[in-house]
Records
---
Amino acid sequence: MKLSEYAKKTGISYQTAWRMWKSGQLNAYQLPTGTIVVKIEDESSSVDLIACIYARESQ
């Protein structure tokens, strides 16, 4: 997946993801066009979390 998609999916900024790639913390490579592609080993293990909040005010 593209670096920008990875940043959105993990909840970090693009700049942080780019710095992680530059420092070698991400398993990624750069295409000749300049696009950075992050390799995802097992996408089935990624879980999208959903938060639900219920609030009620009594008077």
Note: The radius of gyration is 17 Å.
---
Amino acid sequence: MGTVFTRIIEGEVPARFVWRDRSCVAFLNITPLAPGHTLVVPKEEADHWIDLGPGLAAHLMSVSQVIGKAVQKSFEPEKVGLAIGGLEIPHTHVHV
């Protein structure tokens, strides 16, 4: 059985997706810290972000930047924050 994020990616658990490509997905957080709080998650399960290949890590940052710009435009916060998660769920993810 995969992580909750793998179950979301595979459609077993519902989510509101805002991005999907062959390497990663992005969906709205079910407990948002602010409007537009989005999780960018690699399809590949990786417990620790330093274990990601350099190409995938760079891709996650690139997608996070696109999502961040959309959040900035839509909600006009002072700044858009970014944090790499993975402590509470053993599947690397980026909070935007």
Note: DSSP finds two helices and five strands in the chain.
